[in-house]
Amino acid sequence: MMARVLVVEDDAEMAAVLRERLARRGYGVAVETSSEDALERIAGEDFDAVLTDVRMRGIDGIVLCERIGASRPGLPVLVITAFGDLETAVLAIRAGAYDFLTKPVEIEELAFRLDRAHEHRRLAQEVVRLRELAPAPASELDGESSEMVRLRELVARVAASDAPVLVLGETGAGKERVARAIHRLGARSAGPFVAVSCAAMPEHLIESELFGHERGAFTDAHSARAGMLAQANGGTLLLDEIGELPISLQPKLLRVLQERTVRPLGASREQPFDARVIVATHRDLDAAVEEGRFREDLFFRLDVLRVQVPPLRARSGDVLGLAQGFVRRCAARSGKAVTGLSRAAAEKLLRYTWPGNVRELENCIERAVALTSHDQILPEDLPERIRDYGRRDVLVAGDDLTELVPLQEVEQRYVARVMEAVGGNKTLAAKILGVDRKTLYRKLGQGE
After folding, report:
1. How far apart (Å, rounded) are the C-alpha atoms in residues 69 and 81?
2. Distance separating alpha carbons of residues 4 and 15, to the nearest angstrom
3. Domain extent for 251
4. Cβ-based neighbours of 404, under 8 Å, separated by 6 or more
5. CA distance linking residue 103 with residue 245, whole number of Å
6. Does residue 295 share a domain with residue 164?
7. One domain, residues 349 and 247
8. pLDDT greater at residue 397 or residue 22
9. What does the DSSP assignment read for 61-84?
10. Looking at residue 203, what is its pLDDT?
11. 10 pLDDT exceeds 50?
């Protein structure tokens, strides 16, 4: 949705030109010819940005900035000054202006600055909204994105069944959270939820941990012990990282699922097994079956209901909401009066791609809350990899052919990097790049 802009300009001809050119680019434009009328209109209508000249009859642009800042804090004001009038530009910034432009105003530069102001305001509003939002009840599957809405709907349908579930997703994406949600919503919610990581135990211990053992079953078996399968009776068993289960144990697990009985090591009799089975993995089990690392019959027995957990980068709209929830929880645990994220920190979180998914975000916020000496998270409280993300990834240095990108993409990355370094100043960016401004506008258009 394009920004709604109020143009304040006492030169009727200039106001008409700005209205027409901005409207052609999709902006909603309103015009007032005096600061007094502009203040009255701002009091009754909502705008995403204000564009004002400095020198006007009556209240000038500097005073207008101050009054808008007092009456509508957070509404960005862009001020137009005469070419070379640096002193006035500084006064405007001190008065609360978000940005300034010099005459003659180039419409491409103006549109770029307005878009940036609009995004600045949108993000600031989102940060405030999240900070003031009443804490939601604890839930395994937080998030307002369409991906999470679909996931919750699927989990609710899966929970109504008692069939085995295969949960797929990247490391840290929340596969165990999905499993816990299925358990909580299912008919076995009153029973135990037992989670076992098949990757966390040595191969020589995992059989005993899963199936249990009788006294004397092996050298260190000084007493009988119920396995994880038996402990899950009446509830739900989660076998995490099922792709790491040794192939020697896969036939035994298959028999448990088929016969619904389990025989502990050293036992002469089968014991009943009555638990819902959920398995999870970040591996490609289809490929593992083809390569002979996972039994096909066990795979088909487990892959009855499949749930794919989206990575955090595919639901970036959830990042700030999740982060705010983590801030609240971490601050409560540590007793620190940290209320939320600064706008600059929020921008850093949104720019990052989160290869470690929700787990990485939670660890990042826990660290930031522990280190900050302020009432909100600032960029310097974030890990360096997140603070500096995108600054060093202009060119790809390496021999991996899969990482190499087309020349056009390298150019786009470098142009974006220069624009970031100069704070959006296209004149300076064009000078650094050694191109004229029209060429820079074209290259930026290719990169959008």
Report:
1. 19
2. 15
3. 146-308
4. 396
5. 69
6. yes
7. no
8. 22
9. HHHHHHHHHHHSTT--EEEEE-TT
10. 77
11. yes
Question: Does residue 140 lie in a domain region?
Answer: no
How would you classify residue 383: left for phi > 0, otherwise alpha for psi between -120 and 50, otherwise beta?
A: beta
Do 271 and 407 fall within a single domain?
A: no
The two beta strands, 340-341 and 4-8, are unpaired
C-alpha to C-alpha distance for 358 and 171, rounded to whole angstroms: 9
Task: Flag whether 413 is in a domain.
Answer: yes
Per the structure, the count of domains in the chain is: 4
> CB neighbours of 277 closer than 8 A, spacing ≥ 6?
164, 165, 236, 237, 239, 257, 302
**Is the separation of the CB atoms in 369 and 405 below 8 Å?**
no
Q: Are residues 220 and 188 in the same domain?
A: yes
276 by Cβ neighbours in 10 Å (0-12 / 13-18 / 19+) ranks as buried
Q: Which residues contact 205 (CB under 8 A, 6 or more apart)?
A: none
Compute the distance between CA of residue 101 and CA of residue 89 in angstroms, rounded to an integer.
8
CATH code of residue 355:
1.10.8.60
CATH of residue 426's domain is 1.10.10.60
- Does residue 448 surpass a pLDDT of 60? no
The CATH number of whichever domain residue 83 belongs to comes to: 3.40.50.2300
User: What is the predicted pLDDT for the residue at 138?
Assistant: 44
Domain stops at, among 283, 308, 333: 308
End residue of a domain, out of 359, 387, 415:
387
Concatenate the DSSP letters of all residues of 233-270 into one string.
TTSEEEEETGGGS-TTTHHHHHHHHHHSEE--BT-SS-
pLDDT at 269: 84
Scanning the structure block, which residue is given the tokens 């220069």? 418
Residue range 105-134, pLDDT digits in tens:
888 889 888 988 888 788 777 766 666 654
Each residue of 74-116: pLDDT tens digit? 899 999 887 566 778 788 888 888 888 888 888 888 988 898 8
Q: Is residue 175 part of a domain?
A: yes
Q: Does some domain include residue 392? A: no
- Tokens at 366, concatenated: 């826990």
**Token pair 């909502």: residue:** 46
Q: Are residues 182 and 199 in the same domain?
A: yes
DSSP one-letter string for 157-191: HHHT--S-EEEE--TTS-HHHHHHHHHHHSTTTTS
